[in-house]
Amino acid sequence: MKKLSERFNSLDSGLIIDQMSGKFFSANAAGLLIFRGIIAGKKKQQLIDSLTREFDVDAKTAARDVEEFIVELQSFNLHEN
Questions:
Q1: pLDDT, tens digit, for every residue of 49-78?
Q2: Half-sphere exposure (CA, 13 Å, Cβ side) for 66?
Q3: Residues 6+ apart with CB under 8 A from 76
Q4: 52 with 44: CB under 8 angstroms?
């Protein structure tokens, strides 16, 4: 199975394309930041830190957003866990 970094292409517009299936979905700016962080191999705390810096949100909100996004990815079988 291909790694996520080989399987997906993400555009600055928020469009994320699964190159294996041809399916695509869109994410807002925060979701795109999380997705790209996951692709880059960042850990959850690093994703949370990135969100708090980039979007000026508190750590609790950022942690919730990261968790929710990961659950969403898992529901589409798009997360390697």
A1: 999 999 989 999 999 999 999 998 887 666
A2: 24
A3: 25
A4: no
Q: Using CB atoms within 10 A of its CB, is residue 49 exposed (0-12), middle (13-18) or buried (19+)?
A: middle
Domain ranges, ordered by start, for the chain: 28-81
Would you state the structure tokens that stand for residue 57, as one six-digit string? 């949100």
Whole-angstrom Cα Rg for the chain: 12
The Cα 9–Cα 5 span in angstroms is 8
CB 64 within 8 A of CB 51: no
- Nearest of 38, 37, 35 to residue 24 by alpha carbon: 35
Global pTM reads 0.83
**Apex 80 CA angle, 79 and 81, nearest 5:** 105
